[in-house]
Amino acid sequence: MEHVRCIVTGRVQMVRYRLYAEAQAQKLGVVGWVENQPDGSVLVEAWAEKAVLETFIQKLWKGSPLSRVDKVSEIWENIPYDGADATFIIRR
Fold first, then answer.
1. Would you call 18 a catalytic residue per the annotation?
2. What is the pTM of this model?
3. How does DSSP assign 9-63, residue by residue?
4. Which residue is catalytic, options 16, 18, 68, 92?
5. Based on the structure, what is the number of domains in the chain?
6. What is the domain-level CATH number for residue 31?
């Protein structure tokens, strides 16, 4: 499994963006989490096969109907998946 951390900026809070990200991750079989950040961005931590994560990132760029995504910063890291959660969850 690969890992990517994404920081999503734009109008992404209070527009159901986290619910959208959760739904897309569950459809694709991505595990991890999404949470709002104090600066108005959304942080996504995700694990899956690289091709699946690339598809997921494309979905993050699209966003929910009410959102406006200005940027999705990707940080690919070698962080092993610990297997604690076998799903994708919303934090905060």
1. yes
2. 0.94
3. EEE-SSSSHHHHHHHHHHHHT-EEEEEE-TTS-EEEEEEE-HHHHHHHHHHHHH-
4. 18
5. 1
6. 3.30.70.100
Examine the residue annotation and report whether 36 is marked as an active-site residue of this protein: yes
The CA distance from 55 to 14, in Å, is 24
Residue 48 CB-density burial (10 A; 0-12 exposed, 13-18 middle, 19+ buried): buried
How much is the average pLDDT of 2-19? Answer: 98
Q: What are phi and psi of 67, to 5 degrees?
A: -85, 165
Question: Which one from 36, 68, 91, 92 is the annotated catalytic residue?
Answer: 36
pLDDT tens, position by position, 22-40: 999 999 999 999 999 999 9
Range of the domain at 74: 2-91
At 83 the pLDDT is 75
Q: What angle do CA 40, 15, 52 make, to 5 degrees?
A: 85
Query: Please, are residues 91 and 20 in contact by the beta-carbon 8 Å criterion?
Result: no
